[in-house]
Amino acid sequence: MKREWLQMKVRTISLFILFTILFFSLAPFQNFTINILTENSEAIKKFVGENFVEKLKNWDYYILSQWFGKNFGQFIPILAIIIAFPLFSREYENETITFLLSRQNRKTIFLQKTLLSIFVLFILITYFSYLPSIYSLITSKELSILTVSKFYIHSLVGAFFWFSIVIVFTTYFNDQVKPILSSAVVLGLTTTLGLLKPLKFFNTYKYILGYSIFEKGKVDLTYTIVLTILSFIFVYFSYLIFKEKEV
Prior knowledge:
Layout: H1 2-24, H2 30-39, H3 41-48, H4 52-56, H5 59-84, H6 89-93, H7 97-103, H8 106-138, H9 145-172, H10 177-193, H11 204-208, H12 211-216, H13 221-244
């Protein structure tokens, strides 16, 4: 387990620093953002509606839309890809998988790598989902913890779903580049197909960014259940690949 953590420590700390900087380049600048958008009000009305700037004057709408609905939300699949892509493929690429298999059985190796990665992903998503609440508490701004928790569910389930897809690729391929490229292709393809109305369910971004929470004020329960079930199926399928793969 210690070895796994050492391998992902740099990626985890880098993501922590990067998203913390991203948050603090956004949260303290509500008035600055509104002023910029007001100066370009005609273009803003054309693309996002007439009342968008007025809505941003409310702290809760500003931080929820700009953090979950834009900056952090857009990077959640990429964050999951970065955490997962080298887990198994690096062992094959560096030919260290033989050493690992000489010390532990395949099930133990799979569980240690996968569970630790899921735990790290869980910590990152949890911290960055509730960072707006911590900031709001310190700066005496009102932000509903219930609403933040709804976005947290969408963020966590969305991250786990994309993590499970990357796990399949990283167990299947023998180098670290192909899991990244394959995951990026699937992400781009599903997002593009989701733009077509009959195939909109392919677009996981609509779920991750919390459209249903903005529109209806509630978690998309059906999509949450489907993504969760699919995630466990993909993780199990990746175990079967790893279990049967020749070294």
